[in-house]
Amino acid sequence: MSTTRLEERMADKRERVLAAALRLFAEKGFDGTAVPEIAREAGVGAGTIYRYFESKEVLVNALYQREKLAAMDEAMKGFPTDVPARAQFAHLFRKAIDYALKHKDSVCFMEHHHHGGYLDAESLALEARTMELAESFLRVSAERQVTKDVEPQVIISVVWGGVARLLRQVWDGHLELTEEILAQLENVLWQAVRV
Amino acid sequence: MSTTRLEERMADKRERVLAAALRLFAEKGFDGTAVPEIAREAGVGAGTIYRYFESKEVLVNALYQREKLAAMDEAMKGFPTDVPARAQFAHLFRKAIDYALKHKDSVCFMEHHHHGGYLDAESLALEARTMELAESFLRVSAERQVTKDVEPQVIISVVWGGVARLLRQVWDGHLELTEEILAQLENVLWQAVRV
DNA sequence: TTATGTGGAATGAATGTTCGTTCCGTTACT
DNA sequence: AGTAACGGAACGAACATTCATTCCACATAA
C-alpha cells in the first residue's frame, strides 16, 4: 500500500476541516464565520487548520474549487446523447435538482460566494471555464434549432437563476417542494428554452 | 415652517449614512463592512452613526426596509390595466430593468442580504408581504388564462431569478447589456410565463 | 516482546489587529 | 449662555494567526 496510516489520518483531518467550513460558510457566509469556529466544528485545534491551509482565504478557495469541480463532474456524467432534446433537458433538470437537494450546503455556499471579493484568479478562471462549456453547448443546440437562437447567457441565467431561486424559497421555508412543483418548474423552463 | 435648519442638517446626515451603508453593503456585504468604514464613506464621525441607529443591525434593517419599500413603490407606479397581458409584462420587465440599472447598489444589497441572519421580524414580514402581493396578482392572471396555471412562486422564481442572474453577469463584467439581449430576455421570460 | 528515542503532527493559549460601541471634550446652533 | 449634535479617541470583545509545547506513531535496541 502507498498511503501510510499517518497520511490517511491527515487526509481525513483535512477533509473534516473542509466539511466543517462548507457547512458554516453555507450558513453564515465567509465573513460571518470565524476560523476557530470552523476548528470547533471540525473537532480539531485552531492551529491545526493552518497546517493544511495557509490562510482563511486559501481555505475558501480550495473549498470553492473542490465543490465547483464536483458539481461539474456530476453534471457531465451520463448525459444521454441519443434521445430527443426535451428528454435531454429533463435529464439535466432532474440531475441538477437531485444534486442540489443532496448537496444543499455546497450549492448554498457556491451561490452565496459568487460575489465574494476573496476568490483568487484560479477560482475565477474555473468559474469562467464552466460558463464557456455551457455556452458552447447551447450554441450547438441553437444551431440545431432545438433551443432558441439567443445569447447562451440569457438561457443560462433564466434556467439556473430560476432553479436557484426556487430552491432558496424551499430552503428558507417559504415553499414545500413537491413533485408537482418540480414538474411545473421543469415545464416552465422548457417553454423558456425551446424554440 | 416645521423643519428647522438643524433638523434638515440631521436628516441629511442620516441620509448620508444610509447611502454610504448601501454602497458598502452592496459591495462587501454586511459582515464584510466595518462601521467606522461606513462613517468614513459618509463623511461623519464613527460615533455619529449611533445617534441615528442604535446598532449596526438596526441600521441594516432600516436600510433593507427603506430599499424594499422604494422598489415596491416603483413597481406599482403607473401599471397599465387596460392593455394586453403581453404589454403589461413588457411594462413590468422594462420598469424592473430600468430600476435595477438606476439603483444597482440597492438591488445588489437586497440580493446579497436575502440570506442574512440579521434581518428582524419586521424586515422579514415586509419580505413576505411583497411575495404575497406578487402571488395574488399571478393567481388572478392564471384564472384569466393569461399566465400558466402553476404555483405563482414558480413563475416569480423564474422571472426574477432570471433577471437577477443576468444582471449579475453584467455587473460582474461577464456580459455587455445591449438592447438585443434585453429583448431576448424579455421574450424568453414571456414564453415561460404565458399560457 | 518491551523500553526508549525521535520527528513531525496537533494543540490552544498568546499575539497583534480590528471590530462594534461608548464616552467626552469641542463645535454649532438658538 | 445653554443645549444638543458632533468627531474621533478609547474600550472591551472577538478576530485571524502564531508559536512554544505536548502528543503520538513508529523505528531501533535490548
Please provide a written account of the structure.
The structure is a homodimer of 195-residue chains. Chain A is an all-alpha fold. The first copy, chain A, contains nine helices and no strands. The relative contact order of chain A is 0.10. Chain A has two domains: 1-53, Homeodomain-like (Arc Repressor Mutant, subunit A, Orthogonal Bundle); 56-193, Tetracycline Repressor, domain 2 (Orthogonal Bundle). The model of chain A has no long low-confidence stretch (mean pLDDT 95). The A-B interface holds A 28-32, 108, 112, 114-115, 117, 128, 131, 148, 150-151, 153-158, 160-166, 168-169, 172, 174-175, 180-181, 184-185, 187-189, 191-193 and B 27-29, 31-32, 108, 112, 114-115, 117, 128, 131, 148, 150-151, 153-158, 160-166, 168-169, 172, 174-175, 180-181, 184-185, 187-189, 191-193. Chain B binds a DNA duplex (30 and 30 nucleotides) through helix 1, helix 2 and helix 3.
